[in-house]
Amino acid sequence: MSEVLDKMKSRRSIRKYKPDMVPQDVLNQIIEAGLYAASGMGYQNTIIIQVTNKKLRDEISELNREIAGMKEGTDPFYGAPAMLIVLAKKDWRTGVYDGSLVMGNLMLAAHELGLGSCWIHRAKEEFETDWGKELLKSLGIEEEYEGIGHCALGYIDGEYPEAAKRKENRVFYITED
Predict the structure, then answer these.
(1) What are phi and psi of 72, to 5 degrees?
(2) pLDDT (tens digit, 9 = 90+) per residue, 72-82?
(3) Which of 13, 64, 94, 142 has the greatest count of CB atoms below 10 A from its CB?
(4) Digit-coded pLDDT (tens) for 157-171
(5) Is domain 3-154 in CATH 3.40.109.10, yes or no?
(6) Quick one: which of 42, 46, 64 has its CA closest to 106?
(7) How confident is the model over 112-133, as pLDDT tens digits?
(8) For 49, what's the count of Cα atoms within 13 Å in the CB-facing half-sphere?
(9) What is d(CA 28, CA 42) in angstroms, rounded to the nearest whole number?
(10) Backbone angles phi, psi at 55, to 5 degrees
């Protein structure tokens, strides 16, 4: 089997990270993989926001926790020191799909580079708030974007999870007679 297919089969969501920061050159490689994701008509209407500033990372984690209704003190990002937030143009008809492809590329690239990753939801709700809109504005982003997801990134703390058994009867074939 090819290395790419093997990586697709072996990647797992990681829910416990070491506090060690991921080097910028590694983050750049992961971001580049995200930028090469397929997009509707090749328009590339997604953006990625890298967050490695601990204060801002913790602020986003708290907002995410509140939106989820999680118990106080819970970190929805499982201690990951870095996150890449994917957003898509709000008025673009394939934005959610394009952003999802970006997220997939980010997670596969992280796995290839020896990092753990996990897709954390609620980016949509975060960037509908005044806080989210102000963050975008502070970055010079004037157009309207919808949050697709957060890619939590870091070094794995503990054992790498085993794959769950694949469910049966999920593929149907229509072939020539």
Answers:
(1) -55, 140
(2) 999 999 999 99
(3) 64
(4) 999 999 999 999 999
(5) yes
(6) 46
(7) 999 999 999 999 999 999 999 9
(8) 25
(9) 21
(10) -60, -45
Name the nearest CA neighbour of 100 among 121, 128, 83: 121
What region, left, alpha or beta, does residue 15 occupy, with left being phi > 0 and alpha being psi -120 to 50 degrees? alpha
Burial of 73 (0-12, 13-18, 19+ CB in 10 A): exposed
> Domain limits of the chain?
3-154
Q: How far apart are CA 174 and CA 177, in angstroms?
A: 9
What are the strands of the beta sheet with 116-120, ordered from one edge?
A: 46-51, 82-89, 145-154, 116-120
Q: Nearest to residue 16, comparing CAs of 115, 120, 158?
A: 158
Q: For residue 79, which amino acid is it?
A: G
0.90 exceeded by pTM: yes
Stretch 146-152: mean pLDDT, rounded?
Answer: 98
Place of tokens 């952003």: 99
